[in-house]
Amino acid sequence: MQHIDTYRSLFLDYLKNFIVDKEPNTLYKPIAYILHLQGKRLRPVLTLMTSEIFNTDPKKALDAALAIEVFHNFSLVHDDIMDAAPLRRGAQTVHQKWDLNTAILSGDAMLILAYQLFENYDATTFQALAKLFSTTALQVCEGQQYDVDFETQKDVSVAQYIQMIEYKTAVLVGAAMQMGAIIAKASLLDQKRIYEFGKNLGIAFQLQDDYLDAFGDQATFGKQVGGDILENKKTYLYIKALAFSSEEEKKVLTSLFANKDNVIDKVARVKALFLSSGSVAATKQAIEIYTQKAFSTLDTLAISKQAKQHLQAFGMQLMNRTI
User: What is the pLDDT of residue 85?
Assistant: First the structure.
C-alpha cells in the first residue's frame, strides 16, 4: 500500500494533461480553473487506493478517478450557483469569476466529460462503471434537491437529514471506492462492502464538514465560515440544537433562521446556541458513530490486514481533519 500523498501526486500528474488547450477557451478555461483549485482530492484518491487494495495497479483506475473528480466539481459549480457562494477552496467561485451563464454551461460540459472518461475501459467494465455512475449522479441531484427543500421546510428530522447527506455527499464517496473495486475485478460482494465502507465514511465526512462550516478556520477551511448559517441551512447542528434547547432558545434560533437578511451577529449568536445546547457535542459523537460503522465493514472484506489498517488510518485522518 502506498502513502495517500503518492496517490494524490499520481492523480494530479494525470490531471495536468486533461482538457489542455481545448477550444472554445471560454468553455474550457473555467473547467480547468475549478479542477486545479487546491482541494483534498478525496474521491479520486479513494478510487486509486481501492484498486490497489484489490491487487491492481492504481494507474489503471486513473480515468475512473478523474471521472469522479470531474463530476464532483461539476456538482460544486452548480451548488455554488444555487447557494450564491462567493468562495470555493479559498478562491472565487466560477460564477463570480466569470458569470452565471458561463458557470452553467461549463458545468454541463463537465458532466459529459465525466461520462466520456469511462469509454477508455473495456465494454464490461464500462457498463459496470456507467451503471454505478448514473445511479450515483441521480442520487446526488436528489440529495441537492432535499437540501434546497429543507431551507423552507419547517421541521427536518435527523433521519431526513442523514438521508440528504447520504445522497448529496456520501454515495459519491462510496461509488469512488466501488469503481476502484470494479476496475480491479473484485467480487460483487466485496464491491458492495467497500461501497458501504465509503458511504458511511462519507456521512461522517459531511457531518465533519457541517461542523467545520460553523467552527472551522476560514484560512484553512477554504470556504466562507458560517455560510450554512447565513443560508439558513438546517444542518445536523441546527436540528440537534432545536431538540436540546429550551422553548425560549428554540424561539431565538428559529427566528434567526427565518430571517433571510444578514442579521447583525447572526453567525456568532447561532454558534453560541449550538455550543450551549450540546449540539456540537452530539455532532462530534455522530461523526464518530458513522466512522465506526465504516470500520466495522472492514472485517468483512477479503483484503489483507495491512490494507484494512491503511483504510482505518485514512478514516481516522478524515474524522480529525480541520480542512
Answer: 86
247-250, Cβ contacts within 8 angstroms, sequence gap of 24 or more? 249/273, 249/276, 249/277
Report the SS3 class of residue 144.
helix
Using alpha carbons, select from 75, 196, 211 the residue that is nearest to residue 145: 75
Burial letters 166-179, b for 16+ CB under 10 A, else e: bbbbbbbbbbbbbb
pTM value surpassing 0.90: yes
Domain coordinates in residue numbering, the chain: 4-319
Category of 55 on φ-ψ map: left (φ > 0), alpha (ψ -120 to 50) or beta: left
Q: CATH number for the 4-319 domain, one of 1.10.600.10, 3.20.20.370, 3.20.20.70, 3.30.40.230?
A: 1.10.600.10
Q: DSSP alpha helices (H): ranges in 84-156? A: 94-97, 100-117, 123-150
Cis amide leading into 24 (omega within 30): yes
**Euclidean distance between CA atoms 294 and 300, whole angstroms:** 11
Concatenated DSSP letters of 182-232: HHTT--HHHHHHHHHHHHHHHHHHHHHHHHHHHHS-HHHH-S-TTHHHHTT
88 three-class SS: strand
Instruction: Report CA 40 to chain centroid distance, whole Å.
Output: 10
Residue 187 contacts residue 302 (beta carbons within 8 Å):
yes
Q: What is the pLDDT of residues 6-31, one digit of tens each?
A: 999 999 999 999 988 899 999 999 99
Residue range 277-322, pLDDT digits in tens: 999 999 999 999 999 999 999 989 999 999 999 899 888 887 777 6
